[in-house]
Design goal:
heterodimer; A: mainly alpha; Rna Polymerase Sigma Factor, Chain: A; Arc Repressor Mutant, subunit A; 2 domains; 8 helices; globular; B: alpha+beta; Immunoglobulin-like; 6-stranded antiparallel β-sheet; 5 helices; elongated
């Protein structure tokens, strides 16, 4: 089903709360790509990210009535996934973050530009995995998911100056890695 | 590495016009932007959708009444006794006498893994205050605080199994507020802040 042109979030939430379980599929199709990408970048593993997002969406469905601002459903979902990822990381040492979504081994048919892009991605992913979870979360929310600092504050519960500081430190750390590999 | 030019952050945060960014710094900004774009691009290979899995889970029928009843029986719960002040005074006198003449200086009898939690909150305008938390499945109305001397300070003392619990106060049946005097506060998944109480076993 194409979710473009489908009802706005507040309407979908109202449908689900009125008993239309299937309407929750609209929420999933609308946000799962972003949530999976965010969780993958946070956990460094596509399988762990899929588990975290699936668990978060089930949790979101069960507690949908407590979403006080259905118009800001996206922020609310990111908050649940963020907390799930944090719980996951607490149980696992950050140093153990696997990179199972690293680019596949180069195919001979790949051109030089694609190979360089794959190398660069691997470098950036490793630099991201070396950041503390707080800085990684701030950088990914800001630069990968494109959230504003206000939205990030709603997702993380942190103050905007704190988030800015984390984003700045993350940028500096990433830049250092990129420069060292020039 | 040289110190980072703060204009780089200003440019990336949209606080500085692109025209005001020197050419050398533009290359640095472009480099970070390109790195972020790499991370934002869909990862190579198929990313499995979680839709089927989530929908299958939420379509599952709710647990039967028998199952819920069984769960209720096996879940540890706080037991609250409510008595009239006159009876409580009489009970206190009897309890004090029993304690003085039979138990000596020992405290109240608690099971091995139980402890006492005291909840205190100042709500001068409140008509009712309850405490809800992980110890009572967040059910409003089951544990009421009392303001015996009408000074706006509401109190309840509860015997709970030893453990760490999250809780909030429910004021006048509708306003959920954390206890800022709690040992700790923790953010929950829904944008609220829960208080933490640690109940230690009275007997080790």
């Amino acid at each position: 089903m194409d979710v473009r042109g489908s009802p706005p979030d507040a309407e979908v939430v109202a449908l689900v709360l009125a008993g239309d379980t299937e309407a929750f599929g609209i929420v999933i199709r609308r946000y799962e790509a972003g949530l999976l990408r965010f969780a993958t970048r946070m956990l460094g593993s596509r399988d762990a990210a899929a588990d975290a997002v699936a668990e978060s969406l089930v949790r979101a469905y069960r507690h949908l009535a407590s979403c006080r601002e259905p118009t800001r459903l996206r922020t609310w979902l990111y908050r649940i996934v963020t907390n799930r990822c944090k719980s996951h990381l607490v149980r696992r040492s950050v140093a153990d973050v696997p990179l199972d979504d690293a680019p596949p081994v180069a195919d001979p048919s790949d051109n030089e530009a694609a190979l360089e892009r794959a190398d660069q991605l691997q470098l950036v992913e490793r630099a991201l995995a070396d950041l503390s979870p707080d800085k990684r979360e701030a950088f990914v929310l800001k630069h990968v998911e494109g959230l504003s600092y206000e939205e990030m504050a709603a997702v993380t519960g942190e103050r905007i100056p704190t988030l800015k500081m984390r984003v700045h430190r993350a940028r500096e750390a990433l830049l250092k890695v990129l420069e060292d590999h020039t | 590495m040289n110190a980072i030019d703060p204009r780089m952050h200003q440019a990336l945060d949209g606080e500085l016009d692109w025209d005001a960014v020197p050419a050398e710094l533009r290359r640095t900004v472009a480099r970070l932007t390109a790195a972020a774009e790499l991370l934002a691009a869909p990862p190579p290979g198929l990313v499995p959708s979680v839709e089927r899995r989530v929908m299958a889970e939420i379509r599952r029928p709710a647990p039967s009444r028998a199952r819920l009843l069984m769960r209720w029986f096996v879940t540890p719960r706080a037991i609250i006794f409510r008595v009239r002040p006159a009876w409580s005074l009489a009970f206190a006198v009897v309890a004090a006498a029993v304690t003085l003449f039979t138990v000596g200086d020992q405290g109240p009898e608690l099971a091995e893994h139980e402890g006492i939690a005291q909840f205190v909150g100042r709500f001068p305008e409140a008509q009712s205050v309850h405490v809800v938390g992980t110890f009572n499945d967040w059910r409003p109305g089951s544990i009421a605080l009392k303001d015996q001397d009408h000074d706006g300070v509401w109190r309840a003392t509860v015997v709970l199994p030893a453990g760490t619990y999250e809780y909030m106060f429910v004021v006048d049946g509708e306003r959920w507020v954390p206890d800022h005097l709690a040992e700790r506060l923790v953010a929950d998944d829904f944008g609220r802040e829960n208080s933490i109480v640690i109940v230690r076993p009275a007997r080790r």
